[in-house]
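Two proteins, back to back. First:
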Amino acid sequence: MGIAYRTDPERDITLTVWHGPVSCEEWREHVQSVVSELDQGSPSRFLADIRSAADVSTITDEHISEMAQLFARGAYGARAKVAVVAGDLFAGAEQFEHEPSMSGINTIVFNDFATACTWLGLDPDAAVATVRALRAEIDARPDEPR
């Protein structure tokens, strides 16, 4: 399981899904990949749906701070808007939102997917279709040892 994402430069959005177990290393690799795309100037809107993540026990408070710093350095000056739809992971997502390094990056944690989409100016139906496709992509991966 893990993380999958899709960037649509024309719509100025990166949509990320966490599904099943997610390790700190997977998250770090994901953030590094997204940040490398920011070097190319796109996108400025980010939607992370982490509601279907399962075991995230390898992710500590220190890792949350580290990932916020890594993302913030990459998004500096991009006028980024970040929406996290968190479900049961709300407390950790709020910690990410409130990290000092994230100041200047408009970040909100949501419980409702449609509200997050509206805040970002996205069509919720199109975003749901992308989330489903990303979850299916994760489900189709062969099991990998962690």
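And the second protein:
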Amino acid sequence: MIIASAVAAYVYSEYVPRVLVDDSLTLKESHQWQFDLYVLGNRNVNITVRTVQYLVFVTFWYQQNQAATTYLFDKQVTNTTQGGFNVSVQQSGTLVDDSLTLKESHQWQFDLYVLGNRNVNITVRTVQYLVFVTFWHQQNQAATTYLFDKQVTNTTQGGFNVSVQQGGTYYLSVQKTEQYGENVTTLVHVEVIS
């Protein structure tokens, strides 16, 4: 004997409201929906689940990588109740987390999606020698906006919190000083979180 239940799932999100899932199906065992969310600070996700005949269990989780799973809720919905769940999703993403031996300079590039403004936290550590850290936005070939150009020594850690107000491609450069010669290197660690 096969027992099936009709399930309707409806998911939409804040910011630019759009429907991520709008599906009705006959459920024999289970069904999984997958969607990508771009999160700035936090984002509300509204999930509505209705079942016609039998009890169903609704689980909502976030998979950052293979090792880290964050369960946001695990609830049951009956045929006499409608499951409406408003979930605030909070995520800060690591854009750069890199350690390298720097002989001259290295450049990182990443895209930022910006609504209003967005904070970018940049941390640079150098073990041996002074380095120069430059962060800029390239809108097109003619328009370059430099957000900062600072130096970091081996006795100080450079922590920079930058408010970005325009989406697009951003660049971060770390350059070793030539004061100690061209053949010496320094170990640097760079982390960018937004």
